[in-house]
Design a protein that fits this description.
The protein is of the alpha/beta class. The protein contains 7 helices and 9 strands; from the N terminus they run αααβαβαββαβββαββ. The strands form 2 sheets. The protein has a 7-stranded mixed β-sheet, with helices on both faces. Strands 6-7 form a two-stranded antiparallel ribbon. The longest helix is centred in the middle third of the chain and has 14 residues.
């Protein structure tokens, strides 16, 4: 990808790098969500971690538990960090929106806070494709900032970003429309560990494919 055609998320998260992990490491809800997923996975499950960031905590927790983990991230800096931090998982630098996914091949997919730089149409299409990549009974964990906003310019950790998301009801309707059943829903507010950071709402959904 040349600089002009790179997705904006790649530039933003290349610049943020390891500081993201430091700011969000204290999230009890993220850890609770991972613990809940780990309790339900069969041994050696095949798991895709979408927007894998530095690899911690998600890919690390899954790989440490013996699962077969592929993390995909559009930021080369994040992929480099994750590959070093989590040698027990595989990482690939790619835009998940363009990555072909084999139907029914995965036991679980994690998407922790990776949708926010995509349009609503892209988020919807991606969740449908991820649901289709799960085997029947497979699990999707989706966490996001559940705000009814579209193409809003914001500053995130010192970077200019354009944010799009859904409110909680619309997000639940989106996953239901993709053929998923929500079996657990956790709403929380988290303040990143960073000077001047504001509290942000967070929603964690655990879903299964029927
Ligand atoms: C807010 S960070 C979250 C990282 C990690 N999931 C976590 O919760 O610790 C979002 C990550 O998603 C990645 N990302 C954003 N858009 C993406 C896309 N279209 N394809 C792949 N990765 C993407 C970013 O590069 C970034 O590393």
């Amino acid at each position: 990808m040349t600089e002009g055609t790179r997705p904006p998320a790649a530039a933003a998260f290349d610049a943020i790098g390891a500081a993201y992990e430091q700011a969000f490491a204290g999230s009890a809800a993220h850890r609770e969500s991972l613990t809940r997923l780990l309790e339900r996975l069969d041994p050696r499950s095949r798991v895709l971690d979408v927007g894998s960031g530095t690899g911690r905590p998600t890919a690390a927790a899954l790989a440490d538990a013996g699962h077969d983990v592929l993390g995909v991230d559009v930021s080369p800096v994040m992929v480099e960090l994750a590959s070093r931090r989590v040698p027990g998982a595989s990482f690939r630098c790619a835009d998940i929106r363009a990555l072909p996914l084999e139907p029914g091949a995965l036991d679980a997919v994690c998407v922790y806070f990776a949708l926010l730089q995509m349009s609503r149409g892209e988020q919807t299409r991606l969740v449908h494709r991820l649901a289709g990549a799960l085997r029947p009974g497979g699990r999707l964990v989706l966490a996001t900032v559940p705000l009814d906003v579209e193409e809003v310019d914001a500053e995130f950790m010192g970077q200019r970003v354009r944010v799009t998301s859904f409110g909680p009801e619309a997000l639940v309707a989106l996953v239901a429309g993709a053929g998923l059943t929500v079996e657990w829903e956790r709403h929380t507010v988290f303040t990143p560990d960073r000077p001047g950071a504001a509290p942000e709402p967070q929603l964690f959904l655990h879903c299964t494919r029927g």
